[in-house]
Structure formats: structure tokens, C-alpha cells
Design a protein that fits this description.
alpha+beta, 23 strands, globular
Length: 329
């Protein structure tokens, strides 16, 4: 009985490690920082794996901070190049998923209130489904002109001034058309169980964000873990449970933006699963959180200094878009 009790205590302690990361303030290693921005580090093991991560917390209400993005056209730059291109901002990090073949962002990107990147709403079927298509709604995190954050699922189109957003996860639509219009999405949602009011217009609203960057899957909703890979279809099969380097963002109820960078694929750090990522955001007090492009793309610079060790053997991976925090002059 004593051995069994000891075994259960050890097992429970390992399970709770993902909730109990101890974070150390490392502002002095990346300063100078404004009083509204702080950065923390941990190397506490997560489950049985080696773990290293940083998170940066910034006050969205600080009007001296500008939260923005930068993109390239038909090419990619690494974060250090984006840092130089943007006159040495406070923070630069990778963000959206992208195509290696075309250098195209595969998610929405909003800069100064305008869409400069769009969600890809069609995924070709394979095998017996060769002549069918799945149409997912991509997710994104946005910051409004009033400096409030939100995470939503979006329909985007270059003909629209604003993306159309829903706060409820909708499974990907499947048909034989290589393109899906919003009119079709609207018609299909009309026959689905509706979230509250019974009015189909409650599903989608214009999403008027000043800055936004897309990713997926969503990790937290209303403070609870809600990983919806079946919606965004970012990972195949059981890959959603694999450990990798991670880039992710969340926000707290009192208006703090949290950027989490997890190191991985090296002898010092194994990375994190998406569920472990979600648990960390919950521990940090976030109400919503979103996974962004990770793996070899994960990289964050603070005052030009790298945080995690990137996993690509060639160094910082070139990407077509970055999220930026800069100090207003």
C-alpha cells in the first residue's frame, strides 16, 4: 500500500508539472525595457522532457507601445532582417504559417486596419477524396484600435474591407468546389445548431482589428483548454500531440498580451505539445490563446537579442510576416 501511494504521488507530481512552471524574470538580459513590458524564463522539466521557454508580457493599454506587423511581397526575411528593416523595434517574432513554394502567408495578416494576408479556405482532398475539398475557417489573434485583444475564426476575401468573424468553432465545410464563398458559408451555417439567439447573423460579425496575425489551432477559450485542430486542420493525424518548438500568443482579462516561445529539437529542450502549451497559458492567467507557426520558424528577438535557440541548422528561418512591438517616439 505504501509503495502504491508513493507511485501515485510521483505520477501526480509529473502530471502537475505542466501547471507549475517556475518563471524567473530576465528583464536585465534583454533591457532596456519599458515598465509595461517584462520577460520571463523557465527551464523546469515538463512531464519527463527537458524544457526551455520564455514568455513576454506587455500591457496593451500602454499607449507608448505600438503593436503591429510587417510583411514582404514574394520573398521572405529572417527576424533579424525584419528587425533591421523596421529600425530596431522592441520585439520581433515569427507569426503566420506560410508556403515554402510561394512565400505566401497562409493566414490573415492585418496591418493598420487593412488585410495584407488572407486565410486559405480550401484544402484539396486526397486518395478516394481527390475530387472533394475541405474549407476550414482560419483563426487569428487581433488587437483593436481601442487596444483590446480577441481571438476568432475568420472568413477572409480580398473583396471585403473587413474579415468576418465567429467566436464559435465550426467544422470545415466539405464539397466538390475548389472555392467557397461567404454566401455559401452563411447558407450552410443557417442549418446548423445556433450558439445562442437563434439568429443566423449571430454567427459572423465584421472583425475590425487594427493589427492581426493568423495561426491555429486555438488553445484556450474563456479560460478553458479548447484545442480545435479539426477546424483549422493544421496538423495531420496524431501530430497534434507531438513536441516541437512553439510560438504562441494569448491575452489576459486585464489587457495583457502574452507571447510564449518554447525551445525544442535540441539536447537542452524537447519542445511542447499543444495541450502543454495551452496549460501554460492557463497557468499564466490567459482567457484566450492561439498557436502560431512553430518548429524551425520559432524565433523571438527582444531589443535584437534572441530568446530561444532556433532549431533550424541554418539559423533563423526566413518568414513572410512578423509580429512587432515598438516604442512610439
Amino acid at each position: 500500500m505504501r509503495r502504491l501511494s508513493l507511485f501515485l504521488i510521483i505520477l501526480l507530481s509529473k502530471q502537475l508539472q505542466v501547471f507549475a512552471q517556475q518563471w524567473t524574470n530576465v528583464d536585465s538580459s534583454f533591457g532596456p525595457l519599458p515598465s509595461s513590458v517584462h520577460i520571463y524564463f523557465t527551464n523546469d522539466p515538463i512531464d519527463t522532457g527537458l524544457f526551455r521557454a520564455y514568455y513576454l508580457i506587455a500591457d496593451l493599454k500602454d499607449k507608448k507601445l505600438d503593436f503591429t506587423v510587417d510583411t514582404t511581397l514574394g520573398r521572405r526575411l529572417n527576424p533579424q532582417q525584419f528587425y533591421s528593416k523596421n529600425n530596431n523595434p522592441l520585439v520581433v517574432l515569427n507569426a503566420s504559417f506560410f508556403s515554402f513554394a510561394t512565400n505566401q502567408n497562409l493566414n490573415i495578416v492585418v496591418k493598420d486596419g487593412e488585410m495584407v494576408g488572407y486565410n486559405i479556405h480550401t484544402i484539396n482532398g486526397r486518395g478516394k477524396d481527390t475530387f472533394t475539398y475541405r474549407h476550414p475557417l482560419g483563426s487569428a489573434i487581433g488587437i483593436s484600435k481601442k487596444r483590446s485583444a480577441d481571438i476568432a475564426w475568420l472568413y477572409t476575401d480580398s473583396s471585403m474591407k473587413y474579415p468576418l468573424a465567429t467566436q464559435w468553432s465550426l467544422g470545415p465545410f466539405k464539397d466538390s468546389s475548389a472555392h467557397i464563398s461567404f454566401e455559401t458559408v452563411d447558407r450552410l451555417t443557417a442549418v446548423m445548431p445556433e450558439p445562442h439567439s437563434g439568429n443566423v447573423s449571430s454567427w459572423f460579425k465584421p472583425w475590425k482589428m487594427r493589427t492581426a496575425i493568423g495561426g491555429g489551432p486555438v488553445l484556450l477559450q474563456q479560460g478553458e483548454i479548447a484545442i480545435t485542430n479539426n477546424e483549422e486542420i493544421r496538423f495531420a493525424g496524431k501530430a497534434i500531440n507531438d513536441k516541437h518548438p512553439r510560438t504562441a500568443m494569448g491575452y489576459t482579462a486585464d489587457g495583457k498580451l502574452i507571447i510564449l516561445m518554447v525551445e525544442g529539437r535540441n539536447k537542452m529542450a524537447h519542445g511542447a505539445t499543444l495541450e502543454q502549451l495551452a496549460k501554460i497559458f492557463k497557468q499564466l492567467g490567459c482567457v484566450e490563446a492561439l498557436n502560431l507557426d512553430g518548429g524551425g520558424s520559432s524565433c523571438m528577438l527582444v531589443n535584437g537579442k534572441p530568446t530561444i535557440q532556433v532549431s533550424d541548422k541554418d539559423g533563423q528561418r526566413p518568414v513572410p510576416a512578423v509580429f512587432i512591438i515598438r516604442l512610439k517616439k
